[in-house]
Amino acid sequence: MTLPSIAAPYLIYLGDTPVAELAKTGAGLAFWRPERCLAQLREPGCAADLGLPDMDLAQAAAAGAKTLVIGTAAPGGQLPPHWAKRIVEAMEAGLDIASGLHVPLRSNPDLAATADRTGRQLHDVRLSGGPFPIGNGLPRSGRRLLMVGTDCAVGKKYSALAIHRELQDRKVPATFRATGQTGVLIDGHGIAVDAIVADFLAGAVEQLTPAAAADHWDVVEGQGALIHPAYAGVSLGLLHGAQPEAFVVCHEAGRTELSGFPGHKTASIGEIIELTTILSRRVAPNIRCAGICINTARLPEAEALAVLAEAEAEHGLPATDPVRFGVAKLVDHLLA
């Protein structure tokens, strides 16, 4: 399967977003792939700042920008008319467009007409390519590591990217496999698996993580959580399709309730280790937990270190905050 490739460098469009935290796609790009990010474009009143140079469309095009990436969530999930106008101007300036919004870019007649007229590419990374086969569950060569979580948005993507970077630094053959829209934009390749029809999800992930050399690692971004009342299905399909030999449990320190689902408790780390092991046995009978990644961003350093030490003692596995403390000891355990 040939996955769509998004040309870099990027001009990150932040619009006039009133809340800096809504620009998490742009923030992820600037943090993990700064070499792909040329500049940011902000409208008056924008509360977000990625620390990139500010450029207008003409400046960015002259400096070599290839793609305008919508780096923030639009109000109400829709595309504001003044954003659409700016996107039209970007295509006329010679830039492709990439978006992880729920609204397809081609659903806007002006954007579709401009793309056809200028020959620019519209990348809706939530739209899967396909067609995809059903999964076959057969063994394949290569090594695969999957991130799993106690909830959504606990750091699965950041953990995968940190581990991938550490493997690359050690000259270990490895590929980051993006499975969500932000991951696809960060890496330029991948599949937003939550947009795939359920029957074909495992098959799509098998194609995303194909047979490889015996020493090659696919580091697979996780989605959802196996205990989640809404998103467990995508988590299970991803697990079966990836057929990982190892997994890392991701958690946020202090979170006790599923984000946005009041009344539902997060899973414990131990529960996710047990469930992942049981549910993968048909396709990955020798699966093992390689470690624990805990997002400790809300804790002072001393408390964060105590939380990690407690997790290590309880589970007998290396535990770290991948952004704060790195993943060297986790990768040591993975490769041992």
TrEMBL record:
D-glutamate N-acetyltransferase-like N-terminal domain boundaries:
46-126
InterPro entries recorded: DgcN-like, DgcN-like_C, DgcN-like_N, P-loop_NTPase
Where in this chain does the record put each D-glutamate N-acetyltransferase-like C-terminal domain?
136-331
Q: What is this protein called?
A: DUF1611 domain-containing protein
The organism's superkingdom is given as Bacteria
Identify the Pfam families for this entry: DUF1611 (PF07755), DUF1611_N (PF17396)
